[in-house]
Amino acid sequence: MKWCRFQSGKTAACGIIKGETVVEVDGSPFESYTETRKIFPLEAVKLLVPVIPPTFYAAGLNYREHATVIAKKRGEEPTFPTQADVGYRANNALIAHNEPIVIPKDASELVQYEGELVAVIGKRCRRVSEDRALDYVFGYTIGNDVSERTWQRNDRTLWRAKNTDTFKPMGPWIVTGLYPDDLHVTIRLNEGIVGEYDVGSAIFGVRQLISRMSQYLTLHPGDILWMGTDGNTENMEDGDVVEVEISEIGVLRNPVIRER
Amino acid sequence: MKWCRFQSGKTAACGIIKGETVVEVDGSPFESYTETRKIFPLEAVKLLVPVIPPTFYAAGLNYREHATVIAKKRGEEPTFPTQADVGYRANNALIAHNEPIVIPKDASELVQYEGELVAVIGKRCRRVSEDRALDYVFGYTIGNDVSERTWQRNDRTLWRAKNTDTFKPMGPWIVTGLYPDDLHVTIRLNEGIVGEYDVGSAIFGVRQLISRMSQYLTLHPGDILWMGTDGNTENMEDGDVVEVEISEIGVLRNPVIRER
């Protein structure tokens, strides 16, 4: 199933995408819902961020090649995380498919994409084993963990580097019934492929992260877990278009604007 | 005005505290609301976390004595933040006044309180000056930024150290119309005073933080900003009771339990 959130009149509604149409739903996918008779052409609706999470988790550094590239740029030896210590991102920064990434005036030129898989939690979950962890995932969507590298390196936290408004594109929808390790990520800048990798090559997979997190904390329906990216990342400039494609999910596409 | 959230039958409701009673309200303090005719004795209601924030900000290291004490324990020279780089905490960890802080089995004995002021945002806010920043605060409440120091020191992020379930007591209510720099914090462990300080001695005040944050991000109604603590902090053990009192707000009280 393919779930979306979209603008329906003045309010947001959840919808199920069937072929080229969206069926509006009363309720939410995480609780009870009923399909309404309101059906819209998919191309005519404004898609919103597919879920507003109670808590926004991010694995951060979770792929070996990405960790190596980052370290090399800093003239350091790469170090890989030895345990699944999850980090956070912030809801203010979320934008939907097709909405512009806005680079602030005072950002350096080092504003870069990080295309990644996003797991959406479906059920309250506490102290689950790795074997059962995927039972608590509702579905998967796509995230672009846009990052300003000079702030990332020099600020005490990642607040500006990662959470400036518009720096967290997510969408276009959530797809259920997928097996995360089978998925493949392709990142395009202005239609040219700039990166691709297999989700399954993560240092810690969805199963490991959810199981470990849940030993200490309760995951709630709608919580999201961004899985980290692999490979090199490049600068994005005013006028660029960045796309993150994940097999079996779709394409998250966002134009880039620099404030003047 | 004193605002709370409380359990009303099976659901949560907002209320206004008047003397020793709670007046149930339809709506929320951040939008429109009307007082209902349902009035309860304050001592008879179960208070809930006074707001569930869209984004949960925390200033982290923001007082000189606390930074000095922490550095000394590590055998390091203290370093003070030179700019207001805000961090994050997570909603899963929030508990209300009177609810127990539960220390996991595998935590060290270094589980410590950090009593602090919490500013609650009332209006959407982007690029405000320091002079105008307090206009966007709805009111103030109290937080206890419970921290496991070995995890804080050794994990790659603060996820377990700061955000284990129950590690973020907040409440008991939100008080409007206060001037933050006038407030005084007193922390008691089992009724003995273990710390006190003036909010106004922060390295970065509420005004500075909100203004700076808002240069890059949009603050939303209900977002919360925890201001950091000052002074030494001590271990809490099974059976302890920790209280954070802030003048003109009240007392946030939580018992402590260690899992067996």
Shape of chain A: globular
H-E order of chain A: EEEEEEHEEEEEHEEHHEEEHEEE
Q: Could you state the oligomeric state of the chains shown?
A: homodimer
CATH fold node name of the largest domain in chain A: Fumarylacetoacetate hydrolase, domain 2
Number of distinct helices of chain A: 5
Keywords:
260 residues; mainly beta; homodimer; 2 domains; SH3 type barrels; twelve-stranded mixed beta sheet
Walk me through this protein's architecture.
Two copies of one chain form a homodimer. Chain A is built from five helices and 19 strands. The model of chain A has no long low-confidence stretch (mean pLDDT about 95). Chain A is mainly beta and about 260 residues long. The first copy, chain A, has two domains: about 1-50, FAH (SH3 type barrels, Roll), CATH 2.30.30; about 50-260, Fumarylacetoacetate hydrolase, domain 2 (Alpha-Beta Complex), CATH 3.90.850.10. Chain A is globular. In chain A, a hairpin with a 3-residue loop joins strand 18 and strand 19 (about 250-260). Chain A has helices at about 65-75, 130-135, 150-155, 160-165, 205-215, and strands spanning about 1-10, 10-20, 20-25, 35-40, 45-50, 55-60, 85-90, 95, 100-105, 110, 115-120, 135-145, 145-150, 170-175, 185-190, 190-200, 225, 240-245, 250-260. In chain A, the strands form three sheets. In chain A, strands 1, 2, 3, 4, 5, 6, 7, 8, 11, 12, 14 and 17 form a twelve-stranded mixed β-sheet that branches. The interface of A and B includes residues 60, 83, 163, 217 and 218 of A. Chains A, B: It holds the Pfam family FAA_hydrolase. Chains A, B: Keywords: Metal-binding. Chains A, B: This is 2-keto-4-pentenoate hydratase. Chains A, B: Belongs to the FAH family. Chains A, B: GO terms for molecular function: catalytic activity; metal ion binding.
